[in-house]
Design a protein that fits this description.
Helix content is about 35%, strand content about 25%. By secondary structure, the chain is an alpha+beta fold. Strands 1, 2, 3, 4, 5, 6, 7 and 8 form an 8-stranded mixed beta sheet that branches. A 6-stranded antiparallel beta sheet has the order 9-10-11-12-14-13. β3 and β4 form a beta hairpin. The protein is elongated and about 80 Å long. About 25% of the residues are buried.
Length: about 350
């Protein structure tokens, strides 16, 4: 950035005004701009055909580093788009020395721990508080998703939150580094990460500020996305594994457990649905609503866990039975651990 940088505005009266590039007074100024005007993140440059429509979940959202620990970090912004993709935004000024290396590790800490310790019900509660309550959140989601006010849209909204949960638990998200100017070293890292992390979109956004006598212009520019990587991330499907593949890849000592679980679920009329890393057991309740009773991950290593695991979303099932009762019943069967709104058992 140099003081010679400028843009020129041509007025209706034919006068030409030279508008000089200016630095932000503080990092907080740029953070506030992103909070108030998330369109400054350059959605049209990210995807010309279907630009992200942004919903602010929260500014300054805490990120824990354990299931029972308090928040260790604070991400500058957390947003959602119409594709149920979480976007974590970190803002720095070009004059901040941390923008070259430290901010990369900081962002990766956010992403790695968010997939483990951000339950979807917490994200939903944060978005509700930011919007001013559940009803206003519903209105915002209807607008973002292009839904009308009929009864079917309620099911679409619930389906949207299930997609948020699926994306988060599969590690599919967007990371955005925002600054008035991104240093060359950081741009190279962004391009490298975006090209080699198929599930995570990593982007930089420069939001330059030009100020004149009677005008202030904000000019976003997205960095790190090539046409090849954009097409790959759009077209690359996440292949769902088969139940036989899941059982075949799990340790021999617990194969019988999962085979019996599938058989018992089918016998009682539940649906066993394979995913990209595991499976879910679902059922249909009154009103046609599809409810997930548990998630299973037979393969060791899923979501940084060394052993196969079963997750039960107790916070989402409390409309049918209290969370305390569910936890007590599960602990009578096996040693489950409460993590956020989930009960987890490592086999």
């Amino acid at each position: 950035m140099t003081q010679d940088d400028a843009i020129f505005l041509l007025g209706r009266d034919g006068t030409l005004e030279r508008v000089q590039l200016e630095s932000y007074d503080s990092e907080a100024v740029l953070q506030k701009l992103i909070e108030d005007y998330p369109e400054l993140l350059g959605g049209e440059q990210i995807d010309r055909d279907s630009p992200p429509q942004w919903l602010l979940v929260k500014r300054e959202v805490g990120v824990p580093d354990g299931s029972t620990s308090s928040d260790r970090w604070s991400a500058d912004h957390l947003l959602l788009d119409q594709n149920a993709c979480l976007t974590i935004v970190e803002v720095k000024r070009s004059t901040d020395s941390r923008i070259r290396r430290e901010v990369v590790g900081q962002m990766l800490d956010y992403a790695a721990n968010a997939t483990l310790y951000w339950p979807t019900d917490r994200i939903r509660a944060l978005a509700s508080a930011t919007c001013g309550g559940p009803e206003k959140l519903e209105v915002s989601l209807r607008h973002m998703l292009g839904l009308d006010g009929n009864d079917d849209s309620l099911a679409e909204i619930e389906n949207y939150w299930r997609r948020v949960d699926n994306n988060l638990r599969n590690g599919e998200m967007r990371l955005m580094f925002v600054a008035d100017e991104l240093p060359r070293e950081l741009r190279r890292v962004i391009e490298f990460l975006n090209e080699h992390m198929p599930r995570i979109e990593v982007l930089g956004v420069e939001v330059r500020q030009f100020a004149g006598q009677n005008v202030r212009a904000l000019v976003p520019r997205v960095i790190g996305q090539t046409e090849r990587t954009r097409q790959e991330k759009i077209t690359r499907p996440s292949r769902k594994v088969t139940l036989d593949e899941l059982v075949g890849d799990c340790p021999v000592w617990c194969r019988t457990f999962f085979e019996d679980l599938f058989e018992e679920a089918n016998r009682n009329g539940f649906r066993v649905v394979p995913g990209t890393k595991g499976f879910s057991v679902r059922t249909v309740v009154s009103g046609g609503k599809l409810v997930t009773l548990m998630w299973g991950f037979p393969r060791p290593g899923s979501f940084h866990r060394t052993d196969p695991a079963i997750d039960v979303p107790v916070s989402e099932l409390d409309t049918f039975q209290s969370a305390d009762e569910i936890c007590q019943s599960l602990n009578q069967l096996a040693p489950f651990t409460l993590k956020g709104g989930w009960m987890t058992m490592l086999l």
